[in-house]
Structure to design on (276 residues):
């Protein structure tokens, strides 16, 4: 296990030298969790950040109805709980082992002792946090979109597409004009004026049978298309609800993180100024 490489992949420590990373790598602990085991819960007070060495960790939050909303799955090299290194505020999300996992643990006490010994590390972390704060502000200006229509279209069979085409055609002026034109042509062709021995004379029994067959086939196809449209609308509504709910939670977390980062920057700046 290359602890140095894992720590170097963390944005919070990306500006540290190899000697600094080696010290932190020596100080961190390794801990294993079984699948479904809770690493920490939302609202817990923590002083430890984690780096995933092996397995997958799910990050989730609870909404106003106490329903768990999954935010992200973290894999090897990704980290979480880093704000606990600087403050002792409650955890803003829950972390649960999605599979058997192995994590690196770095406590606030370990980092604080090293910063006291090497004050330059605080400036490096301060600079990194400022960059992350800018990235977070940029994230607030972006919007999330989900293309549900494309996913639905990809799962349609040829019969589903045929039913949709029939329903679309039946609700158009083209169908009305075409049916009216066909009826007029049929009546003229089978008129005694044009053909003395017409194959479907008045009252056009065969034509009525043909129309009845068309109507009998149209009905189920139109109902199938309407049912599928109702399902599509329900899926789209559910997806929109989940996206909006997730975005609302994410925005709340981001705003809280922006506020926390601003406070941390002020604390670190004050500490650096007091050391001068």
């Amino acid at each position: 296990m290359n602890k140095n490489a894992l720590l170097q992949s963390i944005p919070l420590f990306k500006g540290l030298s190899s000697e600094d990373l080696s010290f932190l790598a020596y100080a961190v602990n390794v801990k294993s969790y079984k699948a479904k085991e809770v690493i920490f819960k939302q609202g817990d007070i923590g002083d430890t950040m984690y780096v995933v060495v092996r397995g997958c960790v799910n990050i989730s939050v609870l909404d106003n109805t106490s329903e768990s909303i999954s935010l992200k799955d973290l894999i090897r090299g990704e980290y979480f709980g880093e704000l606990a290194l600087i403050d002792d505020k409650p955890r803003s999300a829950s972390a649960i082992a999605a599979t058997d996992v192995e994590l690196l643990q770095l406590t606030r006490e370990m980092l604080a002792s090293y910063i006291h010994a090497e004050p330059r590390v605080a400036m490096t972390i301060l600079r990194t946090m400022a960059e992350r704060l800018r990235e977070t502000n940029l994230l607030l200006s972006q919007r999330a979109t989900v293309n549900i229509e494309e996913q639905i279209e990809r799962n349609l069979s040829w019969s589903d597409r045929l039913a949709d085409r029939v329903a679309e055609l039946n609700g158009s002026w083209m169908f009305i004009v075409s049916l009216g034109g066909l009826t007029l042509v049929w009546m003229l062709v089978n008129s005694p004026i044009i053909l003395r021995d017409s194959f479907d004379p008045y009252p056009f029994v065969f034509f009525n049978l043909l129309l009845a067959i068309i109507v009998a086939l149209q009905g189920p196809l139109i109902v199938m298309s309407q049912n599928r449209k109702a399902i599509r609308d329900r899926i789209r509504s559910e997806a929109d609800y989940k996206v909006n709910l997730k975005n609302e939670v994410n925005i709340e977390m981001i705003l809280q993180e922006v506020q926390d980062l601003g406070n941390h920057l002020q604390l670190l700046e004050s500490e650096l100024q007091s050391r001068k």
